[in-house]
Amino acid sequence: MKSIQSLLLYFLLCCTCSSYSQNQKPKEFKVEFEKFTLDNGLQVILHLDRSDPVVAVALTSHVGSAREKAGRTGFAHLFEHLLFLESENLGKGGLDKMSARIGGAGANGSTSRDRTNYFQTVPKDALEKMIWAEADKLGYFINTVTEPVLSKEKQVVKNEKRQSYDNRPYGHTFSVISKNLYPSTHPYNWDVIGSLEDLQNATLEDVKSFYNRWYVPNNVTLTIAGDFDVKQTKAWVEKYFGEIKRGEAIPKMEKQPVTLTETKKLYYEDNFAKVPQLTLTWPSVYEYHPDSYALEVLASYLSKGKKAPLYKILVEDKKLTDAADVFQYNSEIAGQYMLSVTAFEKVNLNEVMNGVNEAFKNFETEGISQQDLDRIKAGQETAFYTNLSSVLGKGFQLAQYEIFAGTPEYINQDVKKILAVSTEDVMRVYQKYIKGKQYVATSFVPKGESTLILNGSTLAAVVEEKIVEGKEDSFDASIAATYEKTPSKFDRTKEPSYGESPDVKLPLVWKSKLSSGLNVLGIENQEVPLVQFQLQIKGGMLLEESDKIGVSNMLAQMMTKGTKNKTPEQLENAIESLGATINAYATDEAIFISVTTLAKNYNATMALVQEIIVQPRWDAKEFELIKQSTLSQILQQKADPNSIAKNEFKKLIYGNESILAYNRIGTDSTINKITLEDLKNYYAKNIAPSVTNFQIVGAISKTNVINSLTSLNREWKSKNITFPKITIGNTITTSKIYFYDVPGAKQSVIRIGYPALAATDTNFYPAQIMNYRLGGGSFASQLTQQLREGKGYTYGISSSFTGSTNKGPFLISSGVRSNVTFESVNLIKEILQQYGKNFSENDLEVTKGYLIKSNARAFETLSSKLEMLYDISNYNYADDYAKQQENIVKNSTVDSIKKLSENYLNPDKMIYLVVGDAETQLKKLSQIGFGEPILLNKTETK
User: Fold this and answer.
1) Are residues 604 and 576 in contact, defined by beta-carbon separation less than 8 angstroms?
2) Which pTM was predicted?
3) Which of 39, 191, 678, 849 makes the best surface tag, with the fewest CB within 10 Å?
4) Res 507: pLDDT
5) Angle of CA points 811, 749, 347, to nearest 5°
6) pLDDT (tens digit, 9 = 90+) per residue, 183-196?
7) Phi and psi of 333, rounded to 5°?
């Protein structure tokens, strides 16, 4: 049964916007789609978007962890991994290898409680190849799964669990909540990733049974969005998917809301936590439940912004934390409503709980105003458009509604329900789901600080993995699977040819230099009614004094905390009433003011940005809050292995004499020295239009942009600012291994590299070309293929050259299973030694294919266009630099890559840093051949 639908999304501006746009007519935004069903039950949704020569293809299976059985958890997520490895006709390496050849965005996937999806954006000429490949994964995959393949992928998934859950602060929080919120018989009782024990016990027969039950056409939705021929695409879908057999009928998942008969309080002493965290979780509603819309508004109002009751009590009044977060975690058959507070050091969580109760009482008395409701709805409108700013985003949204709401057309109702929420609704859902209701409370505190937990808490059951040398199963992933191929009506082994090569058109860049020195660059794009822009004020940490590192970071945060004529709360309300976001942040080399707004509200938003820049408030209360928050962030970084690795590696790479060696947020010592006067002095000396780039993209013309900057150009005074010469003090003549001890670490975080190139260096882009097959090409790279796919040591590994006008590092980064730390470092060293010597014509062909074809999608989104303007304005690149780089790729040879490798990939002149468990891993690293490892935190670990 075929049907053509149109989605007419009406946003009633008089309901959602402030007085800036009250007189405008309702805005209509239209997304067209066509939906049809194959005879085998496959649901297909097509959406045309010819704005860029790309197509997004997504295959979504209506199976997640909720379809699993107790004792066999983690299967849905395991399949997300397995389907990328091999299928009968794609061959070993599957879609990952093909993605590199066709210039795809990188095949990826995700798993939730209720669905698993596989997606990629590719140049339009590769659409038939993608349809062929996705059909092969769905119908011609399971025979390729062997015992060695399963054993290897188990290791990869277990590494992902260690990295995402076991080796990070508060990583076990959701697991504890799920076990106590949902009964053991409920399918949401376990984590999506599953347990290590269940993964280890999974058999090949278990895997095949799961696949045959759930990976069938009548449980799958295929979405194709972008620039394509509809008639031809339908024929391809029928050809490649049509003969895949329908599976057994899929039972509907009935709603299973939960009710708590008592409040449960649990605690856990977290090895990686430096400060306590309280999380409260109430049973809530399933996705798209009528009450979910008011609950979403309630979450925003309670916790987001200066007017939020939780912010006023916990942050401003009691100074227990720098933020509180309330959010919904709604799924297909049930949901949960969560409040999380990461408190400052040594704060007793009973004080936090008292503050939460006080904030709730204030809300019960005051409720939410219509003005605040409109403000929140305006933000929801902007978020909606942002989600649709890419063809992949449109495809995701259509599939989401099809699977969980029964039809893509539900987007009409969804928007109407968002806009229909009233102030009475918000109070009603609070009374119904939160006030006086039972909940699960978790207190995660640092080791030895159980005195900070909520009164009446009991110890949570958390399974801590013990890493044992030689414990993991061995396997040989190179063994080819032998099987009888699944019969087909035609020869599926033949990969389809490319379609007509896309006509890649670079965005048209306009430029203007204003009299104040402000450098303006823009790209007009009318695809969605949004505007994104940023002001890049050069300087950042580079202009700071070494004994007061952190000034620019604190100044950036202060910039959005009110203006001369607006309190912090008034400024925030003005921004949010426009549906805009204005964020200010600092990097090592600049302060950025980043803005997203509806095109209709651009002028009003720009007026606020001007006020922020030229009329700072210097609020002493806000300064103290920022200072305390920064100190807490510094403390938390000291317990996070990845943050430790990042900060220690900078010191080792740049040396003590370079400002770039510092952590830009500062240290305890530097932050405690900084005063509000220091921020004022930095502002007076260094914030000027003469060192600022204004980069803007979206639904606005050059004329309108320049007109909007007239006042800022007049009021913002130019200054002469001198930038110090940046020294890179550490010349690496011989490799050394450094080790930072994190006792009990489940993974070792590895960083390897040296100071390499600036983005303005002639060889910067050629070095990136050379790096593609090493570690820049994800699954097309040797590092990933050997350490993840070949050995199962890691969940992910990459290498990169990063630089600016200053020299940046070559960096290899990964997190590996703790008991293969030596093996991983040694293998990386060997790959570096052999890379240039073994680089082949095939490597060059794959590199060229990806880098040239990927240009078709290089500037699809607003953010990618903004990045293009950043490169042009900072590095003096030509407007058509993408075409120039394409020519560099085309002219690359095997010999030129070998030469670049010889110059820039010498493993004997690099810094090797490992952050992990010294007791079990340190000694063995001396066998690498770079002498005894140097323990960086020897005093701390005594």
Assistant:
1) no
2) 0.85
3) 39
4) 93
5) 120
6) 999 999 999 998 88
7) -115, -10
